[in-house]
Amino acid sequence: MPDNTIERFFGYLNWLFNPFHGLKTTEVYDLIGETSLTGNALYLNLGYWRDAATIDEASEKLALLVAERGGMGPGDTVLDCGYGFGDQDILWARKMKPEKIIGLNITHSQVERARMNVADAGLEKSIDLREGSATEMPIGDGSVDLVVSVESAFHYGSREDFFREAYRVLRPGGRLVTADIVPTKNSENPFRRMEQWISWNLVATKFNIPEENRYLVPSYDEKLSKAGFVHIDTTSIRDDVYAPLHEFLSKDRTFVGKLPPLAKMLALASFNRPAESVYAGLDYVLSCSEKP
Ligand SMILES: C[S@@+](CC[C@H](N)C(=O)[O-])C[C@H]1O[C@@H](n2cnc3c(N)ncnc32)[C@H](O)[C@@H]1O
User: Fold this and answer.
1) CB atoms within 10 A of CB 143
2) Residues with CB under 6 A from ligand 1
3) What distance in angstroms lies between residue 30's CA and the mean position of ligand 1's atoms?
4) pLDDT value for 38
5) pLDDT of residue 5
6) CA of 92 to the centre of ligand 1 (A)
7) What's the 3-state SS for the chain?
8) Would you tell me the crossing angle of helices 159-169 and 217-227 to the nearest 10 degrees?
9) Which among 34, 124, 131, 151 is annotated as catalytic?
10) Closest C-alpha to ligand 1, atom 24
């Protein structure tokens, strides 16, 4: 992780403005480091804003929405893919009280910090955070009750490999729940279509979303079905994510204040545009399915 300011400055410069230099997913998260949107924890998600007033509340609400959708509860073995700094795992261990949470994350710097957070919370016995990929799970067949992935599956190479692995590790009757980002359906209006193209491509290039993960909800469901899942329900929750987040960030400048100068400039410029235009190409879904 670039810890000196100059190195970080040039890291951001290269990331944001050099079209010929893409970063790997782990490099993106190393660069972002602990610059979380939240104030009290280190969540790296956009939040679920229904009845939430702050980004801290919204990030927790998103984690709880995923857990509740999967029926997480006592006795469950949960596999959390892409756990960031582990805040959601600590929240679930305290509120939903599953038997065990195993986490997989590919970003080494986050794994180290997340393990420290779990140790500080005194939860090492129930939370086991590992370094590893959601597309090659070091987990036995049929050993898990619930697989969850909070705002992470769009990164995987590929999401289909993740679905296949999730199916393998789940016991019959086990569930897969994702909070995930997919593109919006192309508008008939050429100007709107241009906005959609720009917003998707900006996010996909900067956050390393592989082209093979670019498809709409019906294809998402088809791929889950092809992996063997049934009772598939993928619902857009975008109205409770992007617009309220945009409104919050335009008013509360705490997060923007944490950004290096160039990233701050880009963020401030986006606040002058309506959310519907900034996020035109991005849908946000909550998906739940079951292994028969
Ligand atoms: C946007 S962050 C979300 C973190 C966390 N779920 C949260 O809500 O705060 C995406 C996370 O996915 C992780 N990730 C990306 N690709 C992964 C993969 N193939 N396997 C496991 N984790 C991955 C990243 O390291 C990062 O922690």
Assistant:
1) 15
2) 25, 29, 43-45, 81-84, 88, 104-107, 110, 133-135, 150-152, 155-156
3) 12
4) 83
5) 72
6) 17
7) CCCCHHHHHHHHHHHHHCCCCCCCHHHHHHHHCCCCCCCCCCCCCCCCCCCCCCHHHHHHHHHHHHHHHCCCCCCCEEEEECCCCCHHHHHHHHHCCCCEEEEEECCHHHHHHHHHHHHHCCCCCCEEEEECCCCCCCCCCCCEEEEEEECCHHHCCCHHHHHHHHHHHEEEEEEEEEEEEEECCCCCCHHHHHHHHHHHHHHHHHCCCCHHHCCCHHHHHHHHHHHCCEEEEEEECHHHCHHHHHHHHHHCCHHHHHCCHHHHHHHHHHHCCCHHHHCCCEEEEEEEEECC
8) 40
9) 151
10) 82
- Is 165 one of the catalytic residues? no
CA distance 1 to 196: 32
State the distance from the centre of ligand 1 to the C-alpha of 282, rounded, in angstroms. Answer: 18
Q: Domains (ranges, CATH) in the chain?
A: 5-290 (3.40.50.150)
Each of the 292 residues of the chain gets a pLDDT tens digit; together they read: 445 677 777 777 777 777 666 789 999 898 888 877 888 889 999 999 999 999 999 999 999 999 999 999 999 999 999 999 999 999 999 999 999 999 999 999 999 999 999 999 999 999 999 999 999 999 999 999 999 999 999 999 999 999 999 999 999 999 999 999 999 999 999 999 999 999 999 899 889 999 999 999 999 999 999 999 999 999 999 999 999 999 999 888 888 887 777 778 888 888 889 999 999 999 999 999 999 9
Burial (CB count within 10 angstroms: exposed 0-12, middle 13-18, buried 19+), residue 106: buried
The residue whose C-alpha atom lies closest to atom 4 belonging to ligand 1 is 84
